[in-house]
Amino acid sequence: MDASFINIAIVVVYLLAMLAFGWWGKSRTKNNSDFLVAGRRLGPFLYTGTMAAVVLGGASTVGGVGLGYKFGISGMWLVVAIGAGVLLLSLLFAGTIQKLKIYTVSQMLTLRYGSRATEASGIVMLAYTLMLCATSTGAYATIFVVLFDWERPIAIAVGGAIVLVYSTVGGMWSITLADQVQFIIKTVGIFFLMLPFTLNAAGGFEGIRSRVDESFFQIDGIGVQTIITYFVVYTLGLLIGQDIWQRVFTAKTPTVARWGGATAGIYCILYGVAGALIGMAASVALSGVDIAVKDDVYAEVAQTLLPVGIGGLVLAAAVAAMMSTASGALIAAATVARADVLPFVASWFGKDINTDDSDNPEHDVKANRIWVLALGIIAIVIAIITKDVVAALTIAYDILVGGLLVAILGGLVWKRGTGIAAAASMAVGSVVTLGTMIILEVNAEAPLEGIYANEPIYYGLLASALVYVAVSLLSKPTDPQVMRNWQRRVAGQAAEEAPLPTAAR
């Protein structure tokens, strides 16, 4: 039987299983909490798997192997930075976040500061999650293009439809089960298949060392500036991303959120090292193969170095990585759009929209499904018509970190931080980040050079921090009643479920 046929069959079975998970999740989805945060009932095993799955997407899997192919062991730093972000979030903040019993990052800001000015953060978060979903959708479509010989728009539409179906039907319960299977497939594919087979094909570490430049074994071979950038962008971004926080909200207890997440962070670091080693070995084992783009190394290893059938499982692992990120970003975008952005925009027109329908759980779930479906279609369209979605994601990511990081973390760690200071720091940080990006782009020698520069996020963070501290010290302390309510939430004395806010709150 043709090897390519077997590989295709394995991937098709995997995709059909994803659809089945949607129907399984539907049976467990009874209300708003079930759909958005899996009823806040995930134990250590499910929580660790779903957290690792959502952060380890195409950039970590396919991109990590490609970086190892080009730079050697130092190609691990991108994924290590992601793992460090999960570790820090879990050990420092996840326990507190889990106790709040909320649904979005913007709700945390409203609770902490008692200021409606911080509700604008939902717009930035929506842009970030929507672009993340579109980027992931376009990424796993590249596997379908190679495997099925489809045109790119068809590949995006079919792959996006699969994610859209299981996310819409079952919400977070479907996504959690899908993530768990994806976590297992990725673990087997990377650690137990690709790594040993590729190392063996390269002649082991001695075979690699004898045929590559010594810089391949240098821990900083990719460049110190690049490593710093990875930690600033990815580690800090993971501390405040809605897609990551929404997984924290699914934990059954603060202990699960803390230690399950820490385990996922360690797993991510090991995953990054494994990916870099696979890339290093591939640079030797595939030395006679013409590979124009480093991200093609992953598929080339699967199809060239691995036995029949195993290559299909490894390709399924790549699709799994990208789908888990896409589905997590999609439900995060829908949650932010309904809970934060809709009431905020309505308030500008004097409308009071209550997005909580807890008295009618079936209607509430239906409303959430509509938002997931609508935004999923938008993400698919963006992925199809936009050639460089990554540029849009970079802009959203930079504003997320440069504009929102200080206000969010400041609220968690500094009691003197005030609402007016948070709003000012968000505004100044976003403007400085975006302004620096525009200035650099106008003066750049090549297209998108300013967008991908490091300076915007550095300047945005610095300006945001200075404004936050200065305005906090100069303004009146946060209302004592707001702080008392916040402390009760932090102490785990919240109601079982916090309702989604109305525009009037």
Automatic annotation (TrEMBL):
The chain crosses the membrane at residues 6-24, 45-69, 75-97, 118-148, 154-176, 183-202, 222-241, 262-285, 305-323, 370-386, 393-414, 420-444, 456-475. The keyword Phosphoprotein does not apply. The keyword ATP-binding does not apply. It is found in: Membrane. It is a multi-pass membrane protein. Signal peptide: none annotated. Keywords: Membrane, Transmembrane, Transmembrane helix, Transport. Belongs to the sodium:solute symporter (SSF) (TC 2.A.21) family. PANTHER family: SODIUM-SOLUTE SYMPORTER-RELATED, SODIUM/PROLINE SYMPORTER-RELATED. This is Sodium:solute symporter. The lineage of its organism: Bacteria, Bacillati, Actinomycetota, Actinomycetes, Micrococcales.
